[in-house]
Design brief:
The model has no long low-confidence stretch (mean pLDDT 91). The strands form 4 sheets. The protein has a 7-stranded antiparallel beta sheet. The protein is built from 8 helices and 17 strands. By secondary structure, it is an alpha+beta fold. It folds into 2 domains: 217 residues, Rossmann fold (3-Layer(aba) Sandwich), CATH 3.40.50; 122 residues, no CATH class.
């Protein structure tokens, strides 16, 4: 095997360990351990070497695992301790600066970093790992770092709200490398883990196609759906007796078409085919149809597979030759598009 084909992934988790994360401490360990187990499995399946680095940050930024073979990773249980403020910018700078010192000999190396935070930056100005004490200068330093990273670097961040997203944009994070997660509950953290896993899957499959880095790691749409990503997301097919696909032959409201097709309408039972770019609300379920077999996959992981955060988001239908996306409708008057199909769940 020549060096250029030897894929080596350097995946880093940079985890907020400030005091406000204390209610999620055990779940952070679970989610990180699940991500590492997933990385180990996919590295074997795709024949890619993966090395994992973990940073935790509060008042200070600490590297607790550096570039370790994913197949030999310990649990983070003993390594993740919470307490202190949020030196978010210092964590971004230190993690990327230190990882940049990693040797990149003999192989196709790629760096993927996920930063997870539940709050706003408030401690970097007095953190020993920061290159400046002024918030504006720190923001500029992060922005300049991201701007000058090579094409085999991907830096993504998960923030708790729109304010966090605005701050991340101001720091130069590409908009499709920013995701919002619900930091108030273990369920929200579980969903964040699914979003990270879907993004990692997209990244690793992309590596096999020669993609070295991404400025759209959380981008949403049907283009990320394939047999491997469905399997990686843990989606299982719905029993054929539990759904029916109905052709839409003219303009009609969704409830009327369900009733005309001989079914009883219940709110949420009908899924329309995504045929144009539109906003999808946080609680809407997603179904994925395999065109060749008419097999349907659904469940909470379907949202994560498409990279959908736990907020309203605009999604493109994309043109995927093998899969079609369906979106749950909770409106009785939803106008159906002729020449599409309607999915009715039992």
């Amino acid at each position: 095997m020549s060096g250029s084909q030897n894929y080596i992934n350097h995946v880093a988790l940079v985890l907020d360990a400030s005091s406000s994360m204390s209610h999620l401490r055990n779940k952070v360990v679970d989610v990180a351990d699940q991500q590492i187990a997933y990385l180990a499995r996919r590295s074997r399946e795709l024949d890619q070497e993966t090395r994992v680095t973990v940073y935790v940050f509060a008042d200070k930024v600490q590297c607790v695992i550096y570039d370790k073979d994913v197949l030999r990773m310990p649990s983070l249980k003993q390594l993740y301790r919470v307490g202190g403020m949020t030196a978010l910018l210092a964590a971004a700078l230190k993690s990327q600066r230190e990882l940049a010192q990693t040797a990149q000999l003999y192989g196709d190396h790629s760096f993927l970093t996920f930063i997870l935070t539940d709050g706003q930056e408030n401690a970097s100005h007095r953190c020993p790992d920061a290159p400046a004490t002024d918030q504006r200068r720190l923001t500029e330093a992060v922005s300049e770092m991201i701007e000058t990273q090579d094409d085999n670097w991907t830096l993504a961040v998960l923030v708790p709200d729109q304010m966090g997203k605005r701050e991340a944009l101001a720091c130069g994070f590409p908009k499709d490398n920013i995701a919002i997660w619900d930091a108030t509950s273990t369920q929200g953290l579980e969903e964040a883990g699914q979003v990270i896993r879907a993004a990692t899957e997209k990244f690793m499959v992309g590596r096999t196609k020669g993609i070295r880095g991404s400025r759209a790691v959380f981008s949403t749409g049907a283009d990320v759906v394939n047999k491997d990503s469905i399997k990686a997301a843990g989606l299982t097919p719905v029993k054929p007796s539990d759904y029916q696909l109905v052709a839409v032959t003219r303009d009609a409201a969704i409830r009327d078409w369900v009733v005309e097709s001989g079914h009883t309408y219940r709110t949420g039972c009908a899924f329309y085919q995504l045929s144009k770019s539109e906003k999808i609300q946080a609680r809407k379920q997603i179904a994925v149809l395999e065109k060749k077999t008419d097999r349907v996959y659904t469940g909470p992981q379907a949202r994560a597979l498409l990279g959908l955060p736990d907020t309203e988001v605009r999604v493109k239908p994309d043109h995927n030759g093998d899969y079609t996306i369906f979106v749950q409708s909770t409106s009785v008057n939803r106008k159906l598009v002729p020449h599409t199909r309607l999915l009715i769940m039992a």
